[in-house]
Specification:
6 helices; disordered N terminus; single chain
Length: about 190
């Protein structure tokens, strides 16, 4: 006879930008709220801030780690670095520090891949993508594919700005992220 082991409650900290903050959508209808509904036994803290860069997330992280004491940190940063044309080397430096601080605090790290629009040119796009690929070579970091790849091709799931997912897209993002989060929380 098989018996299921009860899941131990854990804390997830989402450190993101406007995509994590579900910009333009009621917070209670965003994808992080969807994760909370799907995983009610866990505590999920959304510390995402619209407009946040990797440097801003890094500045806020020590205080968040101290106050939240997360078991898992989901990092969804880099989009604003890319949109502002920041050097990929600076992004890598900041994300590396975020990962290191999170791990030193005893948290597992999920790193959400981020992509830049193709109009930034193939050289910048390749260097930007390489940051996430290089950081994912760390066996203690789980790279989560960029959820916008399943949203952005569908205009009906996007806000008028063409950058942010609308309310209709939020459940799809929750479903996309759920298996990654569940595995990390085990």
């Amino acid at each position: 006879m098989l018996t299921a082991l009860p899941l131990q409650a854990a804390t997830l900290l989402v450190l993101g930008d406007s995509l994590g903050a579900s910009y333009g959508v009621d917070e209670h209808k965003g994808w992080v709220a969807g994760l909370r509904k799907a995983l009610p036994e866990h505590t999920i803290i959304n510390a995402s801030v619209s407009g946040e860069t990797s440097a801003g997330g890094l500045r806020r992280l020590p205080g968040l780690l101290q106050s939240v004491n997360p078991d898992v940190v989901l990092v969804e940063l880099g989009g604003n670095d890319g949109l502002r044309g920041f050097a990929p080397a600076e992004l890598k430096k900041n994300l590396t520090k975020i990962i290191t601080l999170s791990q030193q605090a005893g948290a597992k790290v999920l790193l959400s891949q981020v992509m830049v629009p193709p109009n930034y040119g193939p050289r910048y796009e390749k260097a930007f993508m390489a940051v996430y690929e290089q950081l994912a070579t760390n066996p203690q970091v789980t790279l989560v594919p960029f959820f916008m790849t399943v949203i952005a091709p569908h205009p009906e799931l996007m806000q008028r700005d063409g950058i942010h997912p609308n309310e209709q897209a939020q459940p799809t993002i929750s479903e996309f992220m759920l298996p990654w989060v569940q595995k990390a929380l085990q």
